[in-house]
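4.2 Preliminary Data

To establish feasibility before requesting continued support, the project team ran the inverse folding procedure on a target of 436 residues. The structure was first converted into the token representation described in Section 3, and no sequence information of any kind was made available to the design step. The complete token record follows.
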């Protein structure tokens, strides 16, 4: 088969696709990966064939500009930052039924569509991807859950298509509730921003909107089932295989640690895309300076310059692959990013999470604590003293390690990418449009 992967140009959304792409490639299928030109070096670095589509996304620059405009607006007229912050207006993490009113969800879908979705899927990107798909004629399109250019291209060329999740399926969960509220409204008051945008986009290529353009014909889910949100969709579970990009194992990591090792990381996407730190790193490191632990902190040059003096039990590295580091760790402290959480789950390492208010970070952190595999506090409540107490508790109570290893067993018991290739082949035959 010919299989086209697609994601917008952020490497943390590409990384979950890489092991699946290579499993299909190893099974004999022809695989290409489409994204904006920004991501081409990361695709080729993974040994796969890129298809550049659209103009460069430059998402980190867009996020920085948006933060500056938000801060200027808040200072100019004193309006609530929450009202100005697009993160609040595009937040889809609400799960409480009493809060999921039509107006609440409609606002989120409207703003998310007009801002994020249309930025990540520009008209030129969609045109380029449709043009390539009609020329190359893939049998199957596998797409990141926010890269809606991909299901449009699949519809335009008659391919089967499915999503690959990077975290919890918040969009499908809210979409399910939103469609129920929408159906209860009078026919003349059923505005659906996503259906309108995608319907208009599909119409340009002679296709009609169907709901699978939003949620896929099926969904490949690398998140362990015990963390999954209750959504009535067809999920194909797959084992999460950590991929951190090209890296070299440092010499110090080849030796067993002399004392308990703790990893502290803010994650690649937060450092590179969101552009800053929201936890007081210097205070956190000072708080554990007298503990009999080795702290491995993944900090870039800017973060390191701002810290000044470091405690003697802290080792600073710009980057080290978590998949290689975590098996030697007794705990990890992080921001709640999907790649970090699932890599820690795969390694069976207890987690201390100060989740940022991005996508499903808070929900994952809460679930990890609920399952006994770690602790979390929201960033605004994460003091240095609290951090120290949480770390001591996680290190000294073996129950956290026991529960973390139980989750690791769940991860390793899930079918690996190579084991779902036959399922993907069958579903492709089932859903691919006949008469191509």
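Position-by-position output of the design step:
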């Amino acid at each position: 088969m010919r299989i086209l992967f697609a994601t917008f140009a952020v490497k943390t959304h590409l990384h979950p696709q890489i092991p699946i792409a290579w499993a299909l490639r190893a099974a004999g299928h022809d695989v290409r990966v489409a994204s904006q030109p920004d991501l081409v070096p990361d695709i080729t670095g993974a040994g796969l064939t890129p298809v550049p589509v659209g103009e460069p996304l430059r998402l980190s620059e867009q996020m920085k500009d948006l933060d500056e405009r938000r801060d200027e607006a808040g200072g100019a007229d004193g309006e609530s930052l929450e009202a100005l912050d697009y993160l609040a207006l595009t937040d889809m993490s609400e799960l409480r039924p009493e809060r999921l009113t039509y107006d609440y969800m409609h606002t989120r879908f409207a703003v998310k569509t007009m801002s994020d979705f249309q930025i990540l899927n520009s008209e030129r990107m969609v045109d380029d991807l449709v043009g390539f798909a009609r020329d190359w004629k893939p049998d199957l399109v596998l797409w990141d859950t926010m890269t809606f250019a991909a299901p449009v291209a699949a519809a335009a060329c008659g391919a089967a298509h499915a999503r690959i999740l990077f975290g919890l399926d918040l969009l499908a969960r809210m979409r399910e509730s939103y469609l129920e509220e929408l159906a209860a409204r009078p026919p003349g008051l059923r505005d659906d921003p996503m259906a309108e945008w995608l319907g208009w986009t599909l119409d340009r290529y002679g296709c009609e909107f169907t709901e699978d353009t939003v949620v896929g014909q099926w969904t490949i889910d690398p998140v362990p089932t015990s963390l999954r949100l209750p959504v009535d969709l067809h999920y194909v579970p797959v084992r999460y295989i950590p991929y951190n990009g090209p890296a070299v194992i440092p010499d110090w990591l080849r030796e067993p640690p002399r004392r308990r090792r703790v990893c502290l990381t803010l994650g690649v996407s937060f450092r590179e895309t969101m552009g800053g730190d929201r936890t007081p790193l210097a205070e956190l490191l000072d708080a554990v300076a007298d503990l009999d632990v080795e702290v491995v902190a993944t900090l870039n040059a800017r973060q390191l310059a701002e810290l000044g003096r470091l405690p003697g039990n802290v080792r600073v590295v710009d980057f080290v692959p978590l998949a290689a580091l975590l098996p030697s760790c007794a705990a990890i402290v992080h921001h709640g990013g999907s790649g970090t959480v699932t890599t820690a789950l795969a390694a069976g390492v207890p987690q201390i999470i100060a989740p940022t208010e991005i996508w499903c970070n808070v929900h994952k952190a809460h679930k990890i604590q609920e399952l006994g595999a770690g602790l979390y506090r929201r960033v605004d409540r994460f003091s240095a003293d609290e951090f120290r107490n949480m770390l001591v508790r996680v290190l000294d109570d073996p129950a956290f390690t026991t529960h973390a290893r139980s989750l690791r067993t769940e991860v390793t018991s899930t079918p690996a990418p190579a084991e779902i290739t036959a399922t993907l082949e069958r579903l492709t035959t089932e859903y691919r449009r006949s008469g191509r």
